[in-house]
Structures are given as structure tokens and as C-alpha cells.
Amino acid sequence: MFDNICKFIAENFSDDLATWLLGSPLSLTVLDPTELQLDPIRADSLIFLQSEQLILHTEFQTDPDAKIPFRMLDYRLRVYRRHPQKPMRQVVIYLRRSDSPLVQENTFRLGETFHSFQVIRLWEENTPQFFHHPGLLPFAILSNTDDPEQVLSQVSRSLETISQKQVQSNLAAATSILAGLVLNRETIKKILRSEIMRESVIYQDILEEGREEGREEGREEGREEGREEGKEEGKEEKARQIALKMLSAGFPIPEIARFTDLSPDAIEELQSRDD
Known about the structure:
- The protein has a 5-stranded mixed beta sheet, sandwiched between helices.
- A hairpin with a 4-residue loop joins strand 2 and strand 3.
- The chain is of the alpha/beta class.
- 33% of the residues are buried.
- It is 51% helix and 12% strand.
- The chain has 12 helices and 7 strands.
């Protein structure tokens, strides 16, 4: 979920992302990974943006991954094959604080082959820079601060100044989800008003995902006639999984109860277990 939220931000606030990573608000458009051909490409946290001048490749990572250096070389060669004349900037952005040496790696070596790329560890980034552009606000909570709760309050006040309600709603939902990496849900809910987020496409996507999972579960259960007990257990387990996703996204318990048919007590128990 965290990687996908970052992908949403990068694709919908690409000028703000370019200003942060490239130093100027280049007008960037999405480069479809399918244009790069070859094998299916990992698409959850992968974003290719292009302008007339260059291609920006960003990859958001929640946790360390030993495969990152090779993957960056692989993607660089794929892009070169398709756009040999365009320079390319590659940036790996780690979201969650880690002491693993993997988050320090910014090169790939194999014999005489050498490739380098940029690495950003958000917890080392200065907080104020993320308040200069609205599309970067959700990242502020993950930056270098000793008081993430105070930063989230500041982000909330900044969000209130955004006049476009859809933009405000989308950024509030993105902030709520990313804040889950450093703060508990009760603190997030206390600072960010849930009603602001309900109109966001992120919120609606989570709801639709839950509905689709429920429909798929129902279709699967229909193929297993005569196993009523197993079907009931499957339905309850799916409802619990959906409830956990909605809790992570900051949905209020009464709304989760209405959507999943779980009791508020059962949802609170899930919340306390997950915490």
C-alpha cells in the first residue's frame, strides 16, 4: 500500500516531484513501462516520467531489498534500448527508517560493468523542504524529525489551505497512510479529519478493492457447495482482512463495521492486535 501511494503522488504531482528531485519544475508525463518491452516489469512502486530533456525513474521502497542495484541497471538498459538519446535520472527513495547496509547501496558492479544511481533515505531529509509544494506534504511525516506528531499537525494545517477539495482530499488520504509508518492510528485519526479523506480517489480505491475481494470471495464460495461452515469462516476471514486494510487507511470504526458487517468490538480487537 505504501509504495502504491507514492506512485499515486508521483504520477499526479509530477511537477512537485521534479522540483524536489531535479531542482526545477519540469513538465513530466508518465512513460508506460510496457513501452520498455521484454519481460513483465515490476510496476507497484516503479514510476517512469519523461520530458523532452530527460527521463526520471523513481522507485519507492518501504524496506531494504538486495535486488535494487541490479534492478536499476536492468531498467536503465531497457530505457536506453527504447530512448537511446535521452539522459536518465534514477532515484531510489526509502520510506521506512532502517539500519540495514542495503539502504546505503547506490551502485551495481559485475566485472567491468559499473552502474550508479541516487538513493534518498527520507528519514535523513530536512523537513521544511516538503512544505514548499503541496504534492510533497505526505512525505514530511517521514523526514528527519524528532516529533512526527508535531509535523503531522503542521501538514494538517497546510492541507487546510488547499482550495481544491479533491486535491486536499487525495493528499490527506496519502498523508494518513504514510503516517502509519511512524505513528499509531489513534494519533493519526486525532490529527487528520477522516471526513476530508472520504472523497479521495485513494479512499474510493480501497473501498472498491474491498468490494471486489468480497465479490471474488462470493464467487469462489459458490463453487464449493455443501461446505457452509468453511464458507462462513472464509467470509469472516476476508472481512477481517478488509477491516485491517481500512484501519491502516484511517477509516473510522463505525464505517468499517457498516462495510464489513463485523461488530465494532471485533474491529477494535483487530486494531489492538495489529498495534
